Structures are given as C-alpha cells and as structure tokens.
Amino acid sequence: MNPRQTSNPLRPSACPGLLRIVQASDGGICRIKLNGGSLRASQAVAVAEAAERYAGGVIEATNRANLQIRGIGGEQAALIDSLLAAGLGPSNAAGDDVRNLMLSPAAGIDRLRLIDTRPLAEQILATVQGHERFHDLSAKFAVQLDGGEALAMLEHPHDLWLSAFERDGERRLAFGLAGCPTDMPAGSVVLDEGHGLVIAVLELFLDLARPEQTRMRHLLAEHSIASLLAQLAERVSIQAVTEWRRAAGSSDLHIGAHPQTGDGVAYVGAVPPLGRLDPATLRGAAQLADEFGDGSLRFTPWQSLLLPNIPGEHSAEVIRRLEQLGLSCDAAQPLTRLIACTGSNGCGKGLAETKGDALQLAALLHLHGHALSVHLSGCARSCAAAHTAQATLLAVAPGHYDLYFRDAAQPGFGALHARNLTIEAVAALLDARSRSPLDA
C-alpha cells in the first residue's frame, strides 16, 4: 500500500520527514530516513532527480546517516510520490517518524564486528513501523545498535543504545538508557533477546511517560535506572555487566579506502563539503557504486558516504573519480573535519552564514599535527552536531563567533575560550592549538 493512502494522520512535529515537508527560509525540507544509512544506486539517482526537479538541488547528508532535500517548492506531492516509488518511504505513513535506528556505516562488513546488526535492525524497524502504539513515540526518540565495529559513531546520545560484547565465549548485547555506548552499561541480554529488549524498553517508556516527556532523559528525571531495570526484568532476562565498557571507535575510518570482510575488497569513504551534495555529485557516486561496487551506497553519521565492496585494485581509481566529483577522500584535509548548520541563508534563527564561513575557515587553516574537529553553529540549538565537537564556533553576529573547546567537566559546547572572533582570528587560534602538545 502506498503510505500516502493510509488513514493514519501524521503526528504534528517540527521535524521534517519524507511525508511531512517542513518550511525553512530557503524552502521546504524533506528528510529521507535510510535503513542503516543504506540505499541502492537507483534510489540515490531518484533522490538526485527529485532534488533537481522539485527543489533547489541541495541534498544534505545528516548526522543520523539520513538524507535531506532542501529548497522544495510547490510540487511537494510529486516529490514525495517520486521518492515513495523508489522504495524510500515507510511501510505506512504513521511509521515514518519512528524509523530512528542508527547502525555503523560498516554494519555487516567491518572486519572487527562481533555481530552483523542488520537482521536485528530489520526486525526492530518492522515492529516499530507495524505496531500503532509505537507511532506515539517522538520523532526524535532514537535507538542505536552497535555490533562492535571499528567504524562506529559512539558520541551521539540515544534514548536506548545496544552494543555487542563477548564474555566467557558468549556474545551478548550491553545496553543503556539516555546516553552513548561508551557509557557504563545498565545491563545486558543474550543476542536472541535483543529485539525483545528494545520492544520492552519502548513499551515501558510509553507506559510511564507523560505526553510532554518525549525523550528517555525526561523519564529518568523522575524514575531511577534501578526502578526501570526492575520493570524491564519482568519482561526480559537481564544480567549486570561488570569489567566491560565499549572502547572508542575511529572516525577517520569513514574517509578513504579501508579493507572490509571479503577477499580483496574494501569500502571507500568520501566527504561532501560540509555534508552537501548536488544532484550531479550524487548521480556520479551512484554510477561508481554500480560500476565498481555492489550497486549500493551507505551514508554515515559524519555526513559522508561509503561505497562498499570495491575490489582493492580499483580503490585508487574510485577515489580519483570521487575527488573529481568534488568529494574529499583524504582525512588530512581540514574540510573533512568541519561541520556546519544551514546558517542564516536557510534558517531564520541563524546569526551567521555558517556554510560560507566554514569554507573560508578551511581555506585559512594550515594545521600542524593533529587536526581538531570543528563545528560551526548559527545558534545555540546545535542542529548540525548531535555530539560535542572538539571545537565549537557559536555565531554571535555575521562572520563573528564565540569559540569553545570541549571539556568533559562542562556541559554543552564545553569551555568558552574567546568571544566575538572573526574567521581569520579563529583560524590563527586553531592553527596554534594544533601545534600544542596540550591539544584537546
């Protein structure tokens, strides 16, 4: 059934979805939620055509491994129908908002993975879309499933996270509430109860949360972890986790060519400038996936893309052609470490043109030694980054920013370092910071 024909109304929300176009200063925004960040090359072409035909030609990779089309005009229904025809929609309209399940971009192919998370992810997504009760979850309520991959975004907070680990020869899933996989786990379940745990957590949340309590952190402000675990233990068998904590991953593994499972094959990662692609670039990447890979692309929480299953002997050629398309495959380039929100060009709340300022900053940076990840935010909402970057520039006026450095002892963006800086002054400070052995 076409999801547009369902009788279930879409829940009011400020978050865009595939079926709900949200207006911004530069036009409508359509968010396409990708299962595990993956799509076929033919679907990538469909996104490119929709952006070109019905919008302003701006496609964004998001920090939850999804895609957005910006600048949508009056032909919203035609755009939605074209994406649904490509198989990019939910199984029903009311289920679109709850497809918030993040995996490693290298799920199933990472050489260090403990489990292939994709079958469990499919089971979870089918359940939350197919059961009407779960449609009451907020469009921001999110779950992370980590299979122990080397390539994993572990700094984005989730309402529920699960992480594979091994103890006494048995593989289990540690889990936690309102945090990240690098936090101390609340408990663990056997692999076969992973689906049951997710469903139990979602049901318990909906049982206990008042309408205004949309996130797990809101519930934890009134209910202790211990009380929630006691109630979960009535539904699934939970064990304590001792002497284990998820080690940090490596973000550099999403850039360039890296060996994967399989004989002589690699995935190739490329970063669009500040997460933005135009239709020609996305079409070109899709063509390379068809020509050299398995006809699929994977988007990442670093706002980049991977082409999996590339024969090793073709990796250099794929990198060369991706760079010809305007993508970066070299982690040493400053632009691969910069993220920026839409800014004042597309958002009424933005105090500066963050995208243009980020491009200027990248051109000015020389960076010696370790390069910092830098986040430019047009306002305090921090839409572009779900985690705290090593350095954050918070706009205070056009072309002027307050500079923060991440500090575990301080919430939010971290420690305020300097106020009202120009981009040139920021570049000088960051270059000096990169030379320092006290680099954050």
TrEMBL record:
Domain Nitrite/sulphite reductase 4Fe-4S: 95-237
Keywords: 4Fe-4S, Heme, Iron, Iron-sulfur, Metal-binding, Oxidoreductase
EC number of this enzyme: 1.8.7.1
Keyword Ligase attributed: no
Keyword 4Fe-4S: yes
Record-level Gene Ontology MF annotations: 4 iron, 4 sulfur cluster binding; heme binding; metal ion binding; sulfite reductase (ferredoxin) activity
Enzyme class: oxidoreductase
Top-level division of the source organism's lineage: Bacteria
Domain Nitrite/Sulfite reductase ferredoxin-like as annotated: residue spans: 25-86, 260-324
Pfam families in alphabetical order: NIR_SIR, NIR_SIR_ferr
Record-linked PANTHER family: BLR3264 PROTEIN, FERREDOXIN--NITRITE REDUCTASE, CHLOROPLASTIC
Designated name of the protein: Sulfite reductase [ferredoxin]
